[in-house]
Amino acid sequence: MKRVLVTGGAGFIGSHLVEALLERGCAVTAIDDESTGRFANLASVRNHPRLMCVAGSIADPSLLDRVVADADEVYHLAAAVGVALVARQPIETIERNIYPTDRLLAALRARRRQGDDVRFFLASTSEVYGKNPKPVWNEDDDLVFGPTTRMRWSYGASKAIDEFLALASWRQEGLPVVIGRFFNVVGPRQSGAYGMVLPRFVESACAGRPLVVHDDGSQTRCFAHVSDVVRAVLSLMDHTEARGRVFNIGSDEPISILELAQRVIAAAGGGSRIEHQTYATAFDANFEDVRHRVPDLTRLRTTINYARRYDLDRIIAELVATYARPETRT
Ligand SMILES: NC(=O)c1ccc[n+]([C@@H]2O[C@H](COP(=O)([O-])OP(=O)(O)OC[C@H]3O[C@@H](n4cnc5c(N)ncnc54)[C@H](O)[C@@H]3O)[C@@H](O)[C@H]2O)c1
Fold first, then answer.
1. Of 75, 155, 194, 310, which one is the catalytic site residue?
2. What is the Cα–Cα distance from 327 to 181, expressed in whole angstroms?
3. 136-157, pLDDT tens digit by residue?
4. Domain 3-185+225-250+294-308: which topology?
5. What is the pLDDT of residues 241-300, one digit of tens each?
6. 81 C-alpha to center of ligand 1: Å?
7. Residue 123 pairs with which residues in a beta bridge?
8. Other C-beta atoms lying within 10 Å of the C-beta of residue 182
9. Catalytic site residue 279?
10. Hey, where are the domains in the chain?
């Protein structure tokens, strides 16, 4: 039986990944400090005989050594996530995103030197492309960050350091790593509390409140359902040719944030209006947004059999239905 460690296992994506790994017959250890996630996200599998939940931080060296010791595979999702959180707590973001990754990789390299080949998945982000002006981003494109005085870039830069560390571990010591750059993942259990747009919109529309759109709403994003993303991650980890490589993962169908708001309002029954808010009011006077963000998925599609099962209408309908049932809200 494969023993798998999921860091951030009580988070939004982590909890779906844990469920999928259990379904595959793995023994799963989920570690989480509940900084943004919560173990309640694992309610459906909480008493599963092959699941062990560990409450604590992966930044704690003795805990890290304990959970890494017998893992055959590690999925590293623990991080400080979300533009609003980054704007509020830049020190936390940088420290949370860099040091635990460094320590995890060091522990896995040490195990490899003892003959244990532990596979490692790193959850990275489209934010590493920064504000690259290309209309579609592929994995070999430049990372174009703004100045260090604008804290929002610290999230992408910290994840870029993680990528360098993981790729260096592959190049120098042969550690089998796979890096996935997620583009706007959405679905049940995602919290709107840290700036994620779709759960915020659904929550407001279902409560009949105004939907707050930043700026004029012409900025575009691509939204993929968490189950499609989790299937892609698991499939990449099964493919030896994915090792030592970076993959965009998500949807490549852009929609403007204004149109997204309109579609959510329509799906929720049409009672809410749209309010616009400047970036300065939403974040701070120095905030710089990325206007368009579309992944090139060619590498993903040529490496695994990637076909999404959820389009945006199905995603919105599911979220509205979930929100209408109070017991399933996050
Ligand atoms: N949701 C998206 O659209 C998206 C996009 C790009 C990248 N990502 C990446 O995917 C991963 C998961 O994100 P998510 O959307 O599920 O967010 P999330 O906040 O729900 O998940 C992160 C989890 O990590 C936990 N955590 C944070 N620091 C920890 C630590 N030191 N020790 C133990 N647990 C810790 C949090 O409590 C949380 O449960 C993150 O690495 C994020 O950068 C997500």
1. 155
2. 32
3. 999 999 999 999 998 889 999 9
4. Rossmann fold (3.40.50)
5. 999 999 999 999 999 999 999 999 999 998 899 999 998 888 887 888 899 999 999 999
6. 5
7. 180
8. 23
9. no
10. 3-185+225-250+294-308
